[in-house]
Amino acid sequence: MEGNRNNRDEDDVKTLIVQGACFLFFSPYAEEYAGPFIRVPCQTSTLGGRAWVKELLTGHIDRMLENYRITTDNFTRLCEILVNCGFVAQNYRKRVLIEEAVAMTLMCLVHGHRMLALCERFPHSPKTINRNTHQILDGLCKFGYHIIQLRGQHDVHPRISNDPRFFPWFQHAIGAMDGTHILACPPTVVQMAYTNRHGTQSQNMLAICDHDMCFIYVYPGWEGSAHDVRVLENALHRETYFPMLPPGKYYLVDSAYRMVPGFLPPYRTTPGDEINRNRARRPRGPKCY
Q1: DSSP code of 195?
Q2: Taking a C-beta distance cutoff of 8 angstroms, is the pair 46, 126 a contact?
Q3: Closest CA to 135 of 113, 93, 105, 103
Q4: Which pTM was predicted?
């Protein structure tokens, strides 16, 4: 009898130890000392990413412009082109549909949201969002080869021919070329190279637009500290598919570029004229008699 009582007491002690350990490890008070031991869902929003995109598509047009910088019709058309032309692969097993993938990509590009911000808006893991955004970006790059093209090299654009301010002075101009800076987040070891003259990290992108304000050439990737002339020389000497013009045609460029065949910068005045112009703008004091 005494042996059975001792065994029973030992079992009771072990049970109390197990209960105490469970209380210490799995109770809410344990989170204050060693973090949560129970997996708690993070994205618990009642309105998921797919439902939110559908709400914007059927809602006011200003909401689409504010969040995606694109109209509802253009957003729907873009999704159809990416899928029907094979730029982005789709199948019935895919959890993230094309509309949601395009929406998260546009929000990342337009507002510069980080991955955690996209995870909060679209309840998916960072791996899922990263995979879908890269698929959309690859599809957009493939789509860009079809829409960013040079056309109408030998004809005078109606905006030039029908305006006496431009014709015949710019009848041989095909478009305008300039460099622009896009904000970037480079690694720490190369941040100095990407720092522009304003003190921010960016990429220097060369772009050419025609008279319809459509891109006909884009050359990104250069550091923000690179000069526009250096970017242009690199685009001309490497296989970047730079749209060369026939003899007699030219691009309108700013004063940072040299006047060479195919590029027309604005006329630079003489130093004396610039000094006289600044002197005429300088405010003068009262006259003394």
Answers
A1: B
A2: no
A3: 105
A4: 0.65
